[in-house]
Amino acid sequence: MPPTSTRLRLRLTAAAETAVRSGHPWVYSDKIREQNRPGERGELAVIYDRNDRFLALGLYDPGSPMVVRILHRGSPVTLTPNWWRQRFTAAFERRKPHFGPDTDGYRLINGESDGFPGLVLDRYAGCLVLKLYTPTWIPALAPTDAGPLGGLRILDLLQELLEPERIVLRLSRNLAPFETTTPCRSGENLRGTDDSPSVLFREQGLLFESDVVRGQKTGFFLDQRDNRIRIGNLSSGADVLNVFSFSGGFSVHAARGGARSVTDLDISPHALASARRNFALNLSHPTVAAATHHQVQGDAFEWLARAPREAYDVVILDPPSMAKRESERAGAIQAYQRLTRLGADRVRRGGCLLSASCSAHVTETEFFEAVRSTLRSDTRRWQEMETTGHAPDHPAGFPEARYLKGLYARVG
User: Which of 40, 42, 284, 293 has the fewest C-beta atoms lying within 10 Å of its C-beta?
Assistant: First the structure.
């Protein structure tokens, strides 16, 4: 708690005030025009507009360039345990129409877009993975002290609302220094006694493992679920190439969809081993058991450049982020063009290509034009089938959140 009971009050530049009022969830340190006192990490900051009217309430972090993350805007509000319960419940209720008993792996809270800036919550069967991208939430993890966030005790609330068997904490890389100054450790159990690294969950009736302790993101790429289902529907009788295959999610869906063969291509032996395990988990499905499963370890660009032309009916290009910062954007666009050309050359006539991007610094317009211009330059005629974005459990409520995009095309 701050050393004084005086509420931290901020005023912003005109541009930042307009951005917050229109729904943007971040305030950068250079946008603070006036501040009544120094603030402490994790306390609540009240933002007032130029007419001294309440504008918003947010989490304050003086150690970050993103000094305030907005929790609430509009009319003044007092944060209470019931207020938090209603907000958590609303996020959970938004997911219910999209998932049935055959899918128990999905995102429950998607950070800023659900009103929880810097906090992600994923479900894998009976295990919840709570991932934090800002240290301002750490006080709310305390088992007894409710801390400064309006009486919020996250673990008790999750136990009450969801009754999980286990809750695992994951911290983003930027929070590594806090592991030496707080009792929090990435990968530790916050609730439950099962400390195994892998958890099994279901996706459209298929089984997958999630490395909830050390795996990328929270252990699995849940955001590509809808595209995996689409690929399964396109793969009957097909030879499928899954480039940057990682744990083989696209491959398993393709095999269940009736693919004749699936080929995983990834540079990581760890990823390929995970893909083999996921394939083995689903051999009870006759079509998965009937599909021939190949694996290739190697650099995707180098291997594709040597691979036979028109050897596959379905080619999936789902690389990791090509631009982790704005300065890499131009190079990423060129890389997407090159990758699209290499992938398209491997598609047989009548086959289809999925080209996907998870680079937030490359906009939808830039990515789609990079793919389309590359396909237009092909001597064969390509027909665009559809473009895709975020799944319902991964809403993107502001421009910087819109990282995921995909384009499907078929060659005539």
Answer: 284
Six token digits for residue 226: 């809808």
Report which of 409, 316, 310 is spatially closest to residue 368, judged by C-alpha positions: 409
- Find how far residue 271's CA is from the centre of its chain: 18
Q: CA 279, CA 208: separation in Å to the nearest integer?
A: 8
Q: What residue has token string 């319902």?
A: 392
Domain that holds residue 240: 221-411
282: left (phi over 0), alpha (psi -120 to 50) or beta: alpha
CATH of the domain at 22: 2.30.130.10
User: Whole-prediction pTM value?
Assistant: 0.95
Are 280 and 389 within one domain? yes
- Structure token pair of residue 21: 């009022």
Distance CA 176, CA 31 (A): 27
393 and 269 within one domain: yes
- pLDDT tens-digit profile of 116-158? 999 999 999 999 999 999 999 998 998 765 567 888 999 999 9
- Rounded CA separation 250/253 (Å): 5
Q: Provide the 3-class DSSP secondary structure of residue 156.
A: helix
Tell me: do 312 and 232 sit in the same domain.
Answer: yes
Residue with tokens 């904490």: 169
Last residue of a domain, one of 53, 73, 93: 73
What span, in angstroms and rounded, lies between the C-alpha atoms of 238 and 312?
Answer: 7
In the predicted model, is pLDDT for residue 1 greater than 50? no
Inside any domain, residue 3? no
Query: In residues, how long is the chain?
Result: 412
β-pairing verdict for 32-35 and 8-12: antiparallel
